[in-house]
Amino acid sequence: MKSVTNSFVSLGHWPSAGGFGFNTDILATNPINLSVVLGVLIYFGKGVLNDLLDNRKQRILSTIRNSEELRKGAIEQLEKARARLRKVETEANEYRVNGYSEIEREKENLINATCDSLERLENYKNETLLFEQQRAINQVRQRVFQQALQGALVTLNSRLNSELHFRTISANIGILGAMEE
């Protein structure tokens, strides 16, 4: 303590016309210099430090507000995207269900059309068979008739003599004459 007092005392005893010198007593000069520098820094730097801290605080608060606004916007966009996703999924399910329904309808229509075609073909086949049967029956009838006619002609020619022939012609002429009257 005595050395600190001596440093203050020695300041008062400095010669005014003397030179400038270094005080090599570290223990006596450093605490005084530090206390003076700290006092000046605190007195003058307090406003600057407060301004710097206030600016930093305002920037941090502004950044937090901006972050909150961005977060709210992101949450809104996320909700909109989720709602759109739900809507798209619903539409996709509707298209899928409608697609399956349409496929089933087309399948049934194709089956029905095929059944109708098969039925028409069956009817055509039956008509063709019936026609062919009728044609075959008519051909058989014609042949039987031709054979019967040939047999009758052969029988008639073999048994017909000129007198029987003359009577048949006369009878037929009489029938035709009666028809004309």
Automatic annotation (TrEMBL):
Carries keyword Transmembrane?
yes
Q: Which topology term describes how it sits in the membrane?
A: Single-pass membrane protein
Instruction: Please list the coiled coil stretches.
Output: 64-98
Gene Ontology terms, MF aspect: proton-transporting ATP synthase activity, rotational mechanism
The record's Gene Ontology cellular component field reads: chloroplast thylakoid membrane; proton-transporting ATP synthase complex
Show the stretches that span the lipid bilayer. 32-49
Reproduce the miscellaneous comment text: In plastids the F-type ATPase is also known as CF(1)CF(0).
Q: What PANTHER family does its record include?
A: ATP SYNTHASE SUBUNIT B, CHLOROPLASTIC (PTHR34264:SF8)
Q: How does it assemble?
A: F-type ATPases have 2 components, F(1) - the catalytic core - and F(0) - the membrane proton channel. F(1) has five subunits: alpha(3), beta(3), gamma(1), delta(1), epsilon(1). F(0) has four main subunits: a(1), b(1), b'(1) and c(10-14). The alpha and beta chains form an alternating ring which encloses part of the gamma chain. F(1) is attached to F(0) by a central stalk formed by the gamma and epsilon chains, while a peripheral stalk is formed by the delta, b and b' chains.
The protein in question is named: ATP synthase subunit b, chloroplastic
